[in-house]
Amino acid sequence: MKRHATGFTLVEVVIAAALFSLIMLGLLSAMRGMADSAGRITQHTERIDNIRLISDVLRNLLSSAQDINISTDSENHLPALVGSTHELIWIAPMPAYHGTGGLHLFRLAAMSPPGDARTALTLSFVPFSLQLIVPNWSAVDPYILIPDVQNFNLGYQGVRDEQWLEDWSEPALPARISVHISSQERNWPEIIIPIYRGAP
Amino acid sequence: MTQRGFSLLEMLVAFTIMVISLAALYSIMGGSLRGTLESMRYSYAVMTAESLMSLQLSVPAEGINKNGETGDGYRWQITSFPFATEPESNITQLHLIRVQVSWGIAPGDRHVILTSLLPEISQ
Fold it and tell me: Which one is predicted more confidently, A4 or A137?
């Protein structure tokens, strides 16, 4: 009796299905692995970009801090740079390519923006004028440098004293400012910024 | 039998090709991930070197030779050499200062070097 090949036998179909599913399993897990690595690469690159950008901005703005003697009246003199561990206010020229240029009052602070429980590292600035020496910072919209900062500490070193201080309220500018930042569970390298000035 | 399927040998060859190409793709992805991490370490090292350089404003007469290690495992070394100036000129003696930050297992394997000129100030 002659057998006619009318279709696949059950064994053939089972083997074909098993092979097909093996191939698909391998391919899909490879694809997912590649998508994961691509995401991680993008994440790392963005992180490096952010760190470089933020440290460069801080380096530019802080190293050009201006020593301006502000006297509110004949008795009181405001220091040109006021800093604590988590907040720093200083006067520096805004780079002209941002449009405005001129002296600005800057404030670098770690705080929670409204409607966000996380602590953010923020930079606010207003044009500097002698009429408005102490602006109402809560009315200024801050720029968020890092949305989620775990640790932000500032340190100050005077011209004569090698010791790092936690606060700065002297009339003269400090010689160096150190910035410790950690975000996304990682420490940034310590940023030490010298303040350029005339002869110390 | 007019219609023939694939033989076992053909299937094996096809499988092998697929596995080899997948392995190649995997190693490419792994390589780019490693490269990204390495570039991150380079950025960190440059920032560390910039910070170390910022700590120096002048060089004492005997020069500087310091080294140490940061908390995140970067080894640093600061050295200085007197910079040859014109003998008659009465400008301040300058020193070539060199900040090297290295990381990795083999010393000097991966490193960045920043150099600058600083004036000598006797203390």
Answer: A137
H or E element in which residue A72 lies: none
Q: Which amino acid is at A42?
A: T
Burial class (CB in 10 A: 0-12, 13-18, 19+), A195: buried
Note the ipTM here.
Answer: 0.74
Contact B94, B117 (CB under 8 A): yes
CB A80 within 8 A of CB A68: yes
For residue A123, give the 3-state DSSP assignment.
strand
Q: CA nearest B118: which of B56, B51, B46, B55? A: B56
Alpha-carbon span A113 to A121, nearest angstrom: 9
What residues in B contact A193, CB-CB < 8 Å?
A: 54
B51 with A189: CB under 8 angstroms?
yes
Chain B, nearest residue to A8 by Cα: B5
pLDDT lower than 70: segments of chain B: 1-3, 89-90, 107-108, 122-123
- Cβ atoms A74, A189 nearer than 8 A: no
What pLDDT is recorded for position A199? Answer: 38
> Which A-chain residues 46-65 have CB contacts (< 8 A) with chain B?
47-48, 51-52, 55, 59
CB contacts of A175 in chain B (<8 Å) are: 57
- Give per-residue pLDDT as tens, A189-199: 889 998 876 43
Tens-digit pLDDT profile for residues A91-108: 888 877 766 678 888 999
